Structure formats: structure tokens, C-alpha cells
Amino acid sequence: MKRKKIKCKHCHIYFYPSPYNQHHQKYCDNNDCRKASRKASKAKYRKKKSKEKEYREKESTRVIKWQRQNPGYWKNKKKNHKKINKEEALRDFVQVENIYSYVSALRDFAIWQHTVMQGLISKLTGDVLQDNIGAQYNHLYDIGQRVSSISAEAEIIDLIQKTGGVNEVQTSNCPQQKANYT
Fold first, then answer.
1. Which site among 9, 136, 168, 169 is 20 to 30 Å from 69 CA-CA?
2. Are the CB atoms for 118 and 137 separated by under 8 Å?
3. Is there a contact between 113 and 141 (Cβ–Cβ < 8 Å)?
4. How much is the pTM?
């Protein structure tokens, strides 16, 4: 049987696959490509197993154990930060100085609110994996969007019915503007 050359998924170079694995070999024998193959294989396995409750529980306990053994692991990242040129930082600061006073309170509240939501989800589900917390966060966000869009649609319908038509609707927040929906 004649072997065909195939293109490596990592380095994109054509190669002859092993005669024993040619039906499913996607990566060449280069060390970097073998590492990429193992990485892709592990990611595929984790994605497949992430749907199983037992695997998620084991992974959660593994992460908790690792976090207890490595307290403060995130603090060491500050040493590797790039130094900022003072002139560039001052220039950027002057441009946003006026905006900062308005946004800072909102930003602090948003960061606090996000952290509280993550803690609440973690407490309710008993899960500490960021991926699982993120999935729950997204699910709750979607529910909130559906609830708020239902109430917003109901308000719009009531407003249209009260005014008698779409062309005569004025925006409630900006009385000086008229909404033209033609």
C-alpha cells in the first residue's frame, strides 16, 4: 500500500505518517509538534470528561488541594511586569483625568459586584473551578437578560398602546428628542 504525505496540524509541513498510525496521525515527529499533539489530546480528553460529574468533583478537589499547597501563588506575578515609561504614563493619565473621577466609583462597584457573584456561585455550587463558575455566571446572566428583555418589551408595548401608535412615541429619558420610527 502506497503511503500519502499529509500536512502536520502544528508546523504545516508535509510528512509521511507511520504505517501503523496513518489512519489517524495528524502531527509529525518533530518535538514541538509532538508536544502540540499531547496538548491537543489532553484538551480533547478534558472537554469530553468535563460533562461527567465524578470527573468535575475530582478536579475540584485537586484544585482545592493545590491552592492550599500554594498560597499566594498569584502574588509572584508582579515581579515579571514590564516597567512603564513615566512620560507615557503621565500623558495617558492627563487624557483620562477628567473621566476617571466619574468612572472610578462605577468601576470599583463593578469589580466588587463581580467578585461577590463569583463567591456566591462558588458557595452555592461548592465548586472552585473558574471554568465551572464562569459557566454558571453565564447561565445566570442569560436568565437575567431574558427577564429584563421581557419587562422591557412589556414597557414598550404599554407605551405604544398608551400613545396610540409608533410614530408618536417620545423617549421618556430625553423629552427634547422625538423617536421617528418610519
1. 136
2. yes
3. no
4. 0.37
